[in-house]
Amino acid sequence: MNLLIMGLPGAGKGTQGAKIVEKFGLIHISTGDMFRAAIANQTEMGLLAKSYIDKGELVPDEVTNGIVKERLSQKDIAERGFLLDGYPRTIEQAQALDAALSALEIQLDGVINIDVNPESLVERLSGRIIHKETGETFHKIFNPPAAGYDENDYYQREDDKPETVKRRLDVNISQGAPILEHYRKENLVTDIEGNQDIQDVFADIEKALSNLK
Ligand code: AP5
Ligand code: MG
User: Which range is the signal sequence, renumbered to this chain (predicted)?
Assistant: First the structure.
């Protein structure tokens, strides 16, 4: 099964993505995670990406298209299937993805769109904490780690500062609609109500995916 997961920053793409890939054995490809890994490794691409991410802007299409295309052409993708998280984010990226998949003779099976009220997202992002050792995402209030956890074992993302979040939301709201339209025309999109508990969102996604299989 080959899937996209879409939604505004903080909608729950990473949270639901982790559950989906665990349940269905897919490979999770998150462009945001790939950029953050490149930044941590201080590669040339990482340094370039950081200059955009820190401002809440999108990394240029040619860079992003290149890393996704390279990952999709690896052997495990055809064997296990994938969940793309945070890509495509511009209509040019959607076209590049169509071309890459068609060259690889891979078919897209569905697009999960997590629909959330934008007003709730600042609160979600400002309370997000990530476990340093495992990379697992939590929320101080909505999804806290075990009771009595040590705050020093967790970090907050640099781009979760309120100023950057505002820019990220503006950029994604303006770019997102045409991409969804692109996939709606192909009848691939399932809209999921994201304004509910994490487990309830996942139950709805599971239902939608069982209809796909
Ligand atoms: P990326 O890492 O993809 O960030 P994003 O799209 O802004 O999305 P997030 O990861 O912030 O949110 P999420 O939807 O994964 O939410 P999560 O599950 O963590 O991209 C970062 C940057 O990289 C971009 O700004 C851009 O610069 C660059 N980039 C990436 N891809 C690119 C591309 N294709 N092109 C160009 N540039 C690109 O949940 C958020 C919080 O809410 C967590 O704390 C979680 O516990 C909590 N939560 C989740 N679900 C619920 C719920 N149902 N109820 C309550 N709380 C919840
Ligand atoms: Mg994410």
Answer: none
